[in-house]
Write a structure and sequence with these properties.
Low-confidence stretches: 1-57, 61-67
CATH superfamily of the largest domain: Response regulator
CATH topology of the largest domain: Rossmann fold
Organism: Catonella morbi ATCC 51271
Pfam families: Peripla_BP_4
Distance between the termini: 8 Å
Number of helices: 11
Subcellular location: Cell envelope
Protein name: Putative D-allose-binding periplasmic protein
Strand content: 15-25%
Mean pLDDT: 85
Order of helices and strands: HEEHEHEHEHEHEHEHEHEHEHEE
Structural class: alpha/beta
Keywords: Signal
């Protein structure tokens, strides 16, 4: 754990220094304290009276500290550890920066209407100088973003890459994009599986939700790594980020492909479902997940899961908030439709050899 904390602290410090130098900012953000990958203690559910009046649907909370600047962030959901951790990282960074941030989301990763409503509510209040968004798809929030841009609100894209061209056709633009390099994540996971089963093995991929760019990029990265090594990709199917669906998909894959040796899953929730299917089959099939959730790391340490490629959602969230604050200080005016350079957050491969270092 000490290694991870040190890695994350240095990563955030370097990220912010590079960002400020590249964009010519004069003010430096408060130095970040060490961060870990523990899950947020806040619970998801109905909006409480402590939440901003802008939030009339979805789930969320408000982090309030002294200061006049006010920001908002719309996540995909708060029902999984990944997004709970991101929310915690945002709120911790808000306290350090001395700003107020309202964090809201839809109820699930399928709640497109709920997420749109949350953003429309934020935009309509006129209270926020900058808003961060982690859209469910690359276009589902574009209309609301364009409306906000027309009112002078600056937008930061988080995790799911927005179709900048489609947004530009509506008159909207983005200031920055913060995310893990998802293609590299998929390549890393697939590469580890091949180390364990051999380059010529039969392999499969369990994808996320169809149309979700982050999942598609992980899938494409894994597919490229498998193909480059000469492995035989026998199947690739979506399971909508869901554990039960992933278990069913994996069961069918195992039944249809008796020589299957490895499955790469585009998140840990699905990986845990695939592990259940493997156990029931009685076969030796290696499974790799993505995200670095607590239960997945434990499963890796116990030898049930071959590996997980751990993202750092707390650092993603903290970095996004810092960029929002910077954009407001610069009085940034993003160009409509312009592509923005990704601010990449490094991922970490967790295997049985190092899993104990990351256990809580």
């Amino acid at each position: 754990m000490k290694k991870l904390k040190g890695f994350l602290a240095v990563a955030l410090a370097v990220m912010m220094a590079v960002s400020l130098t590249a964009c010519g900012g004069e003010s430096k953000p408060t130095s970040s304290a060490k961060k870990d990958m523990s899950s947020a203690k806040s619970s998801s559910g109905a909006v409480t009276s402590e939440t901003s009046s802008a939030s009339k649907s979805g789930t969320g909370s408000t982090a309030s500290v002294a200061g006049e600047e006010k920001y908002a962030i719309v996540l995909k959901t708060q029902s999984s550890q990944f997004w709970q951790d991101m929310k915690a990282g945002i709120e911790e960074e808000a306290a350090k920066l001395g700003v107020k941030v309202d964090v809201q989301s839809g109820n699930t990763e399928d709640d497109v209407e709920g997420q749109v409503q949350v953003l429309e509510n934020f935009v309509s209040t006129g209270e926020y100088k900058a808003i961060g968004v982690a859209p469910i798809s690359d276009v589902n929030l574009n209309n609301a973003i364009a409306e906000g841009c027309s009112k002078g609100i600056v937008f930061i894209d988080i995790d799911e890459k927005i179709d900048a061209k489609a947004l530009g056709e509506l008159g909207g633009g983005l200031y920055a994009y913060v995310a893990t390099d998802n293609k590299e994540v998929g390549e890393t996971g697939a590469g580890e599986l091949l180390k364990q089963v051999g380059n010529n093995a039969e392999v499969a991929i369990i994808e996320g939700k169809a149309g979700a760019l982050s999942g598609e990029q992980r899938r494409d990265g894994a597919k490229a790594a498998f193909e480059a090594a000469g492995a035989k990709l026998v199947d690739s199917q979506p399971a909508d980020w869901d554990r039960t669906k992933a278990m069913d998909v994996a069961t069918n894959m195992i039944s249809a492909n008796p020589n299957l040796k490895a499955i790469y899953c585009c998140n840990d929730t699905m990986a845990m479902g695939a592990v259940e299917a493997v156990k029931k089959s009685g076969k030796d099939i290696k499974v790799c997940g993505t995200d670095g959730n607590d239960d997945a790391i434990k499963a890796v340490a116990d030898g049930e899961l071959a590996a997980t490629v751990a993202q750092n959602p707390k650092l993603v969230g903290a970095t996004a908030l810092n960029l929002m604050v910077k954009a407001v200080k610069e009085n940034a005016k993003p160009e409509a439709g312009a592509e923005v350079t990704q601010t990449g957050i490094a991922a970490v491969l967790i295997t049985k050899d190092n899993a104990k270092e990351y256990l809580k």
